[in-house]
Amino acid sequence: MAIQGERIRVLNDVEPRADGAYVLYLLQQANRATFNPALELAIEEANRLDLPVVACFGLLDGASGFPEANARHYAFLLQGLADAKAGLEKRGIGFVMRKASPAKVAIDLAEDAALLVLDRGYLAIQKGWYAEIVKAVETRIVQVEGDVVVPVETASKKHEFAARTLRPKLNRLWDPFIAELKPRKPKHAAGTLKLKSAIDVSDPEAVLAGMTLDRVVGPVKRFIGGETEARTRLKAFLKDGFAGYGADRNMPEAAAASHMSPYLHFGQISPVEIALAIREAKTGDDDDRGAYLEEVIVRRELAMNHVFYTEGYDSYAAAVPEWARKTLGEHAKDERPHAYTEEQLAAGETHDRYWNAAMQEMRETGYMHNQLRMYWGKKILEWSPSPEEGFARTLRLNNRYFLDGRDPNSFTNVAWVYGLHDRPWQKRKVFGTVRYQSENSLKKFDAKAYVKAVEKLCAAEA
Predict the structure, then answer these.
(1) Residues 250, 256, 259, 261: what is their CA dihedral angle, to the nearest 10 degrees?
(2) Engineering a disulfide at 162: which of 36, 68, 360, 421 sits with its beta carbon 3.0 to 4.6 angstroms away?
(3) Short name of one Pfam family for this protein (predicted)?
(4) pLDDT single digits (tens) 338-391
(5) pLDDT, tens digit, 9 for 90 and up, residues 309-323
(6) How far is the first Cα of the chain from the last one, in angstroms, to the nearest whole number?
(7) In angstroms, what is the C-alpha Rg of the chain?
């Protein structure tokens, strides 16, 4: 069960430090103790060098915190890290967590490391951490991709126009990457090392209470963080919800979603592990498998492609294609039958009860079904004073309330509302030739049943 070579990048090609006390792994994107190729490679290297493995995590707090992250996001993150810590220690791997940037923690601990292993994310802030680490760390640095099925540069060397252009490339490549990853056994336990963790994440609520952050958007009961919970949910989905997924996935009231997106966002489960489970599922048919793999591989990795190859992916000017900006600009002064402030949108105070229900689900539970997310975003464009302000509002609301906000999928899906990965359609007021979505789209599912389901979910959060 070798780790595919395409997943591995050497960022500092020097020999490992001869007097190093351990192999260091910066656990930052892949927050899990199993099915983690970066961790398994760290164990392989440590065994080769007769050393233990230490994993570390940098917790951003206060003014230097992760952009737009709040108590909701941090509660879920810390629950996952508590689970990961327990799993790492069970495997004989040390875990050090400090309040500092991931780069600073890695740089400090790398002074006594023979070798540094990084996992990989694609956001600008993550790229900045890696660049800072490479500049400061003198020992060997190896980065291992564990957040996508097919590594981004392997799948495509350019920004893809749409899912239809990336899909055939992924289809040709993904079979060898959808492979089991067996856990390696460390030869040396890290228990003898005298490293101190400044934060004991075993009590995530206590850690959260000691942080300086936005607490207006609080934790949710609907989702519990961690790889253990992720696998429990996946198993339940395959047993009870997967059969019929191909037909029901666009019906919010059908409860056909797997709810894996928060766990994927925080790296608490591997997309490869999910893809393997889908392929091997006893329930469901080929249509169900194909539909799910389309979402977890093609659509998700199209988003990774977008943020990787787009500088300024969080801005209207850079993320929205020229044709869409042009047509939206030509219709920017069109009369809008309804106009709302951002505060009214956040409170769900519009004339549209179904939109309000979707906003309530998002605001109170941290989740919204994909079918409603499209409608939700298109209406913000329609109800905002300009396309630029609509884009900014959509992204702010998305990143503030969704558990999986601030994700490549988030930036890509918001830009899709404004024309990314799409083509011109029939011209309309406000939208120009950007795709419009009317209330008629709600007729494709039982919208009244959806509203009742949201009311029940939100009552459970109270």
Answers:
(1) -30
(2) 421
(3) DNA_photolyase
(4) 999 999 999 999 999 999 999 999 999 999 998 899 999 999 999 999 999 999
(5) 999 999 999 999 999
(6) 46
(7) 22
DSSP 259-312: --HHHHHTTSS-HHHHHHHHHH-SSS-HHHHHHHHIIIIIIHHHHHHHHHH-TT
Q: Could you give the C-alpha distances from 457 to 152, 320, 452, in angstroms and in order? A: 37, 34, 9
369 and 272 in one domain?
no
Residue 141 three-state SS: strand
Give CA–CA dist 355/453, Å, rounded. Answer: 14
Residue 255: which pLDDT band, with cuts at 50, 70 and 90? confident
DSSP lists the bridge partners of residue 98 as 58
**Orientation angle between helical segments 163-173 and 300-309, nearest 10 degrees:** 110
- Whether 457 maps to a domain, the answer reads yes
Chain Cα centroid distance, residue 159: 19
Please tell me the distance from the alpha carbon of residue 67 to that of residue 10, in angstroms, as a whole number. Answer: 28
In the block, residue with structure tokens 């493995």:
53
Residues 297 and 339 occupy one common structural domain: no
The full DSSP string for 165-228 is HHHHHHHHHSGGGS---PPPPPSS-GGGS----S--TTSHHHHHHTS-S--SS---SS---SHH
Residue owning tokens 């737009």? 68
Query: Distances in Å between the alpha carbon of 119 and those of 5, 130, 143, 255?
Result: 14, 10, 6, 33
Could you give the CA distance from residue 237 to residue 258 in angstroms, rounded to a whole number? 6
In a domain, 260, yes or no: yes
Q: Which amino acid is at 307?
A: V
Residue 284 near residue 183, CB atoms below 8 Å:
no
pLDDT tens-place string over residues 96-150: 999 999 999 999 999 999 999 999 999 999 999 999 999 999 999 999 999 999 9
Q: Same domain, yes or no, for 238 and 351?
A: no
Cα 307 from Cα 193, distance rounded (Å): 39
- Domain enclosing residue 101, as ranges: 1-146
